Amino acid sequence: MKCRRCGHKASINMRQHKLALCKDHYLEWILSQTERIIGKYKMFTHQDQIVVAVSGGKDSLALWDVLSRLDYNVEGLYIGLGINGGISYSTKSRSYCEEFANLQKSKLNIVEINKELDNTIPELSKQSSRGRGKPCSVCGLTKRHIMNRFAIDKGYDVLVTGHNLDDEVATLFNNTLNWSTGYLQRQSPVLESTHPGLIRKAKPFCRFYERETAAYALLRGIQYIYDECPYAVGAKSIYNKALLNRLEVDRPGAKLSFYLAFLKAKEEGFFTQKGESNINLLNTCPSCGGPTTVIGECAFCRMVTKVNQGNK
Amino acid sequence: MKCRRCGHKASINMRQHKLALCKDHYLEWILSQTERIIGKYKMFTHQDQIVVAVSGGKDSLALWDVLSRLDYNVEGLYIGLGINGGISYSTKSRSYCEEFANLQKSKLNIVEINKELDNTIPELSKQSSRGRGKPCSVCGLTKRHIMNRFAIDKGYDVLVTGHNLDDEVATLFNNTLNWSTGYLQRQSPVLESTHPGLIRKAKPFCRFYERETAAYALLRGIQYIYDECPYAVGAKSIYNKALLNRLEVDRPGAKLSFYLAFLKAKEEGFFTQKGESNINLLNTCPSCGGPTTVIGECAFCRMVTKVNQGNK
Fold first, then answer.
1. Which domains does chain A have, with CATH numbers?
2. Contact at 8 Å (CB) between B26 and B215?
3. What global pTM score does this model have?
4. Which of A172, A173, A177, A266 to substitute to test the interface with B, most B CBs within 10 Å?
5. What is the ipTM of this complex?
6. Chain A: nearest CA to B93, how far in angstroms?
7. How far lies B112's CA from each of B89, B91, B125, in Å?
8. b vs e for B185-224, b when ≥16 Cβ sit within 10 Å of the residue's Cβ?
């Protein structure tokens, strides 16, 4: 197969786009597509101060790389979760982020959960009633809280994450199976700030398949952590991804069209703004000052309060 | 496993309801559940004249049986599609309906498409541009038109169909993958008449799994056609059903909760009434007098007109 642009040997073939490209034209294509998506969804501009949350995985490091090459003002944020102490998942993932930042001469901000909260994620999870023993719920809640607070405190304009199309579609699929109306209303390539304590969020890779971000990282020679988080084994999101992968094999482009049709329906006003999770009606948490959908402490502060009470 | 009601040997175990029942209590359960669903969704009453569309398959014959035993005023309607002439799919399916009607001493109305339209479904399909050679689209359009017209002309109050949970969920899944907003707005256990030429429709079996209606038919000794329609091979609905069956195996109750959560979201007003397929804004077809979402001839009349023009 030959590159559509130059006729040299193609490195990747994207069936859903009917597009095969060589290494150089693929890297160029990812850049121009990312720029297009940033513009299409009005995510941010070259004047904005951007922080990208990096996990050490291919998506977030590739995103940092792309945004740097597109000359955006971007820094990294790594959150140390304390997963598997020692030479562990968290230690390895942090060192991939540090190596990348050094090579790029970019600034990496680091927040270590156990310094912030006197607890690692597995410890917090053991002491919390959330998630029935699985740390994923506690981890998600904590990361969202820390990322938001860090970005607000440091005065960034926007927080970006490396969610790819496969991530977005797995989330959409789960929210649709449950008809979680609040989550369906909120799922979007860009989430506006609707509260002074809520950072604007954007997902510039939301329309790239996972294999496309992986191919980018590989062709750019980016070193990243291959392993899944050890706690992710058996997670519903991984089950849903496997099911959706089968669907994609049988109907190439199915994921992309599912996601785009969802965004179109939403844009055309198909969903009402009813329901408990209306992001336009946020309250302020009396403990942390952050945004919350409830009246009183936010879910993160309630979890921490409960864990601390249990330890007295 | 023992029957929850009487302790005798169970004939069926319904994991999603955590309920095992013997033959007698299962048949009783299907009756009482159907009555409950008819009441819950305000489908029809004992004063209504009901016509049930029967295909010769297990669902529609079981539904006719259940409604008769619940003392509703119900007659059958069989539509002969002319599929595989001779001792064929249509001939066999018709004879199952006739046998059932004779045994039950119930009235079966028969409409043969080739007498109404001078064409069988496969012939119509060959001459039509709909469905790209597959007759399923032409068949669905024609059946819906004939059922509706028959029920309106004969003055019935409601048309009921044997759609089971697996059917409804496969349709819902497809409409969700495509975010077909018009279809999502309309999919419902009961469709009110919003036009004088549109019959009220109801699906009393919409909350029974296919295996539950099959078990009912089997335990009641109802003779029905086992074969799928020969044209259904490779249909998207069958692909979707297989995918959803895998999901159900891994997460028992997943289909039911997907469907119920959808109905709840809808009832709570999650979907707006925007979009092209607003059933509350129906027009009248100048050719047949039936309802249509467009201005001008309805889709059925347009198809017939085109086929007739092609034959001149």
1. 25-276 (3.40.50.620)
2. yes
3. 0.90
4. A177
5. 0.86
6. 32
7. 14, 11, 16
8. bebbbbbebebebbbbbbbbbbbbbbebbbbbbebeebeb
